[in-house]
Amino acid sequence: MIALVDCNNFYASCERIFEPALYGKPIGVLSNNDGCIIARSNELKALNIEMGAPAFQVYPLVKRLGITLRSSNYALYGDMSARVMQVLTELSPSVERYSIDEAFVDLSGMEEQSIAFCQQLAATVPRYTGIPVSVGAAPSKTLAKIANHLAKKQPGRNSVCVFQEADDVELLQWLKKLPVEEIWGIGKRLGQKLRLRGIETAMDLREANPQQLKKNFSVLVARTQMELQGTPCIHLDEAPEPKQSIMCSRSFSTSTNSLNDLKAAIRFHCQNACEKLRGQNSLTQAVLVTVRSRSERFKGRAYDASAIALPQATDDTQQILHTAQTQLEAIYQPGVRYHKAGIMLLDLIPWRPMQLGLLESEQSALKEKGGKTQKLMQTLDQLNHKMGRHTVAFGLPVEDARWQMKMAHRSPRYTTCWSEIPKAKAC
Ligand SMILES: [Mg+2]
User: Fold this and answer.
1) Ligand 1 mean position to 413 CA, how many Å?
2) Alpha carbon 116 to chain centroid, angstroms
3) How far is the CA of 386 from the centre of ligand 1 (A)?
């Protein structure tokens, strides 16, 4: 079994911790430069203020409706996120962070106590951190996502919903009602294609003909079907991207205490994340770097994280990398052995031309710089696409670094790597 722990209205909850007068009040958190709403408390949702609403439309309502607007405080959110992860790791050895405010907790071997344990998770995290969470557990990640949704939306459940069996009557009833596009990883576009073939609900997908599914859709859909039936088969590496963020992280083959190793790992993940970001035509507004250690000297801090808002939404690897390296230096502790590092790009927005300053003299300089950066990034992506990942990269390449995956038994990359191309000899 697996549990998904999700912080409720995470940014708004962080704002409340140190300002208790905000409990029960509508709160909106604003994007970079206070442009638009990127996070809402339930009270703000109830006022029908939409996600992404421009701040200037909300300002006139602030006094009348008692709304509190806050600029985003990524340093606070990043630190609170690390604290939540730390509490989870203290309660369970097997925690995988999925996004800034969500983590999967492996419950294998504790099926019998799963309900009590999930209740413990839901009670302990808010007691230790002040952040309320919802916990959903089920035999697979996809079903745990659904259980989590019910834990959050149905008040009678007290923030916990556990389905020990994939054939649970209540779960089946819910699957019949759940629109197919709302399943984890399916989404609107794929949902439309499934609907054309008569698959409209989660139950329809669960019971669809597997051969037909494999023939007409990707392997992800086939796996999602198995997950809906209760067979876990989605690993976190292949899991759908969390909403409005991109995450790249990996465990090291052996732990390391070298800042240079960590920097190389962050550089590697950062470049992958930025390539993904540009591939989907988005800009990021904040960067979160996380490291993990089992070391005693980490004093129970299983995770450490630091997040920073970018001065302007961007897709420029140089800028994001620079921010990430600065953050890493801030959280790095000499003498601690780390075994995982990663980066998250947060609060993505669709690509748009760079906002220019007000002064005309500034505008032309910024425009020229922005244009050059954009061309550089395009060239970088094209080269790496054509010649193989990381053919052109920032910084010095590190071969066989400790933070790389163990691949002692990998066969040569015959078709994608020039140095490993098969050699033919004429005798
Ligand atoms: Mg959440």
Assistant:
1) 40
2) 27
3) 38
Instruction: Please give the Cα distance from 339 to 326 (Å, whole number).
Output: 20
Query: For 316-341, what is each residue's pLDDT tens digit?
Result: 999 999 999 999 999 999 889 998 99
Phi, psi at residue 6, to the nearest 5°?
Answer: -130, 125
What CA–CA distance (Å, rounded) separates 321 from 380?
15
Beta bridge pairs of residue 95? 105
Q: 283 by DSSP, 3-state: which?
A: strand
Cα(174)–Cα(149) distance, integer angstroms: 11
Ion ligand 1: protein residues whose beta carbon lies under 5 Å: 6-7, 10, 101
Compute the Cα dihedral for 194, 197, 202, 205 and give only its sign: negative
Ligand 1 mean position, distance from CA 115 (Å): 21
Find the 6 Cα to ligand 1 centroid distance in Å.
Answer: 5
Beta carbons within 10 angstroms of residue 423's beta carbon: 5
Which is more confidently placed, 24 or 360?
A: 24
C-alpha 280 – ligand 1 centre gap (Å): 23
CA 7 / ligand 1 centre spacing (Å): 4
Neighbours of 48 (CB within 10 A): 7
Question: Which domains, and CATH codes, for the chain?
Answer: 1-143 (3.30.70.270), 246-387 (3.30.1490.100)
Residue 250 CA to residue 339 CA, distance in Å, equals 9
Separation of CA 102 and ligand 1 centre (Å): 6
Tokens of 252: 């090291």
Average pLDDT of span 260-267: 92
CA distances from 392 to 58, 120, 192, 385 (A): 45, 48, 38, 10
> What pairing do the DSSP bridges indicate for beta strands 160-162 and 246-256?
unpaired
- With contact defined as beta carbons under 8 Å apart, do 224 and 205 qualify? yes
Helices (DSSP H) in 313-352: which residue ranges? Answer: 317-331
